[in-house]
Amino acid sequence: LEDIAAHGFNTVIAGCEAYRSDDALAKDAAGIRAFLDECASRGLRVILWLHPGAGPYAPIREGVVRTITAFKDHPNILCWYLVDEPEGWWGSQPGGKTEADLVDLCAAARAADPYRPAHINWYAWSKGKGGYGSLDATDIGALDRYPVGRGANAIKATGDIARIMNDDCRPRHQPTAFWVQMYGYDDAVREPTPDEMAGMTYACLIQGMRLIYYFIYKPMSTDLWESMAPLGAELRALEPVLTDPDAREFAVDVTPDGVHYALWQRGRCVTLVACNASDEKGALDLDLKKLGARRVPGKVVSASTPGAVTYGRGRLRAEFAAN
After folding, report:
1. Which residues contact 12 (CB under 8 A, 6 or more apart)?
2. What is the pLDDT of residues 175-231, one digit of tens each?
3. Cα distances (Å, whole numbers) of residue 147 to 7, 14, 158, 210
4. Helix (H, G, I), strand (E, B), or coil: what is residue 122?
5. pTM for the complete prediction?
6. C-alpha–C-alpha distance, residues 258 and 250, integer Å
7. Bond prior to 120 in cis (omega within 30° of 0)
8. Are strands 315-320 and 176-181 parallel, antiparallel or unpaired?
9. What angle do CA 116, 122, 124 make, to 5 degrees?
10. At residue 307, does pLDDT exceed 70?
C-alpha cells in the first residue's frame, strides 16, 4: 500500500466476497475493516469489488445487500463494484439470471446505500445502450479495453471508445469509468510504455472519465512504474478545475487529425487539456470565444507540452509531437 500511494494513486480496488451468510460475514468483518483503516492511513480510498459468484440470482442479491449494509458506515469506501464483465457469464450459468436482474441488483445496492454509486463493468459496449444489462443497471458506465501490443494505436483506440461511452452517458448525467491496460501477459502482448500510459490516461480524462482503473498489477517495467507518480501529480494539479462546481466545460472534441481536447473555464482562467492520439504530428487552432468561452484570458500563464504554444486575442494554437 505504501508503494501504491507513493506512485500517484489515490484509490485501490479490493476483492470482497458478497457474503451469503451472517456467520461468514462476522468471521471476516474485522479483517476487512482493518484493511479499510490501513488504506485510509496511507491516504488511499477503497472500492470494494463484491464478487457475487455463481448460482441463481436471489442469493446473489441477498449477499450484495448484506455486504453493503455491513460496511457502508466506513467512511473510506468510495463506491461499490458489483459485477465484472457479466456479458461473459451472467446469463450462461445455471440459475436463470437475466439482464433485468442486473438492473434490479443495482437498484438494491442503491437502496442499501443511497450515498455511494454502485456499478458493473463490461468488456463490450453497444452505442446507445452501454453493455449487457444496459446503462440502467449501473450508476457508472464502465468498460475495460486492453489494446496495447495488438497492432493498433493504443491511445487512439482508447480515446475512440471513451468518446463513444461519454456520448452515451453525458445526456444521462452519468459518470464513466475505464480500465486502462497496465499488464503484459496472457492475452496482452506487452505492457504499455510510459508515453502510451500517459496518452491513454489523458484520452480518458479529456473525453470525460473521472474514474480510471489500472489493470492489474505493479508492472514489470521500472520505467512504467516510476512514470505513474509524475502522472498522478499532473492529474492532481487538474483537480481544482475538474472538481469545482463553478467550473464549466465549454468544449470537448477530437480534431480530424486525432488531437483530443477539452476546455474548461473557471473565472477568467481557461484550462486546455489536450492529447495527440495520432502517430503523426498534430496541432490545435482554437478560437476560444467561438467555442463558448464567456471571458477570454489575456495570456497563457503556463503550459506543459512538448510542442509550441502561442496565444493572442483569444486564439490558442498548440503543436504536438507524434505519440
Report:
1. 1, 4, 39, 44, 45, 46, 47
2. 999 999 999 998 888 999 999 999 999 999 999 999 999 999 999 999 999 999 999
3. 23, 24, 8, 20
4. strand
5. 0.94
6. 19
7. no
8. unpaired
9. 150
10. no
* Residues belonging to the chain: 323
% helix, strand, coil for the chain, step of 5: 35, 25, 40
Number of Cβ within 10 Å of residue 212's Cβ equals 17
Which of 261, 235, 251, 237 has the alpha carbon at shortest distance from 318?
261
pLDDT tens-digit readout, 92-142: 988 889 999 999 999 999 999 999 999 999 999 999 999 999 999 999 999
Q: Please state whether the peptide bond connecting residue 216 to the residue before it is cis, i.e. omega within 30 degrees of 0.
A: yes
Q: Which of 251, 261, 255 is nearest to 292 (CA)?
A: 251
Determine the Cα–Cα distance for residues 47 and 63; give it in Å rounded to an integer.
Answer: 17
Angle at 160 between CA 256 and CA 266, to 5 degrees: 80
Tell me 276's DSSP state. E
Helix (H, G, I), strand (E, B) or coil at 291: helix
Q: Are 260 and 202 in contact (CB under 8 A)?
A: yes
10 Å Cβ neighbour count for 51?
16
Give the β-pairing of 309-312 and 315-320: antiparallel
**Side chain identity at 227, as an amino acid letter?**
S
Neighbours of 198 (CB within 10 A): 19
Q: Give the H or E element holding residue 104.
A: helix 99-112
